[in-house]
User: Which sequence fits this backbone?
């Protein structure tokens, strides 16, 4: 009997632990859902099209774009009515074009064209002011990143990113690590948003999300070399791109990630309430 109680309490303890772990990781999945805002009417962006589909309404287009991890989309507004002859009833069906885009307009609408049959929706604002010390780049399906031309230590880099409404880049996915690595100098360790600085003994990104919530790893050979430290991204001709641990007081280039628009909205809301 007491054995049964022991087994039962063990199972319950596991269940509770699991729920806590799942809950942590659940927040990540919901964070990554992009929110598209109407940015311009009577216009269509000429950014590369990831995928296109006929839809019935803008919400269907949103869901389609989201499933494709598009950072923006064009939504057709011209009616394309079809008469469907089903039995004796004529049913009208409206179909509209949905174009999921790889990248949004971020340079003050330089690739936007006038088109009265479209509306342009995006997860990012159309101008991103970063100043002269940074270079902007869009990584398709991942987001907008900025590359510093200054060398700073990890905590200074965190502050520099915050000043432009950004955070050190989240790189825990193949798209992110390989996408971002294309823009860094070869053989030049560059700070990204992954560290293990306190006594928590977990590697986490700048959103407080534990590495254990993700399947992807890009540790270099023999990495992580220390149980504490800050992570750099390294790009080498022979080994490709990988993560390397360095002391957090190293002074290096760094990469920030610009928050999509919905994040501004979210932080404004929480500030106001
Ligand atoms: C964006 O472009 C418009 C029209 O070309 C121009 O008037 C405006 O000053 C630009 N804004 C910024 C912030 O560059
Ligand atoms: C750009 O970097 C230089 C140092 O390289 C610094 O003095 C300057 O304040 C930076 N500018 C901005 C806008 O942060
Ligand atoms: C950062 O976001 C705040 C709040 O939305 C905004 O007021 C501010 O202008 C932004 N700063 C930069 C540099 O984009
Ligand atoms: C980064 O440099 C600043 C200024 O020198 C210093 O106060 C801070 O402790 C350093 N941070 C790290 C993580 O070494």
Assistant:
């Amino acid at each position: 009997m007491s054995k049964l109680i022991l087994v039962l309490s063990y199972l319950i303890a596991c269940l509770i632990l699991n729920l806590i772990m799942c809950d942590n990781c659940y927040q990540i999945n919901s964070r990554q859902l992009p929110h598209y805002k109407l940015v311009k009417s009577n216009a269509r962006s000429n950014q590369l099209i990831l995928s296109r589909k006929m839809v019935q309404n803008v919400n269907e287009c949103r869901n389609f774009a989201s499933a494709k991890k598009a950072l923006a989309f064009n939504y057709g507004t011209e009616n394309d009515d079809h008469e469907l002859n089903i039995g004796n009833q004529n049913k009208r069906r409206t179909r509209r074009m949905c174009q999921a885009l790889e990248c949004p307009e971020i340079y003050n609408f330089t690739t936007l064209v006038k088109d009265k049959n479209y509306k342009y929706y995006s997860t990012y604002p159309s101008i991103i002011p970063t100043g002269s010390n940074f270079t902007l780049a869009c990584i398709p399906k991942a987001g907008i990143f900025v590359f510093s031309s200054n060398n700073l230590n990890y905590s200074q880099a965190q502050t520099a990113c915050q000043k432009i409404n950004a955070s050190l880049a989240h790189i825990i996915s193949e798209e992110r690590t390989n996408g971002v690595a294309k823009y860094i100098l070869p053989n030049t360790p560059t700070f990204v948003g992954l560290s293990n600085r306190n006594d928590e003994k977990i590697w986490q990104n700048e959103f407080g999300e534990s590495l254990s919530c993700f399947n992807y790893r890009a540790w270099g050979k023999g990495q992580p070399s220390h149980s504490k430290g800050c992570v750099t991204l390294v790009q080498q001709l022979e080994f490709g791109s990988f993560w390397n641990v360095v002391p957090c007081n190293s002074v290096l280039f760094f990469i920030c990630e610009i928050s999509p628009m919905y994040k501004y909205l979210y932080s404004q809301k929480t500030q106001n309430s």
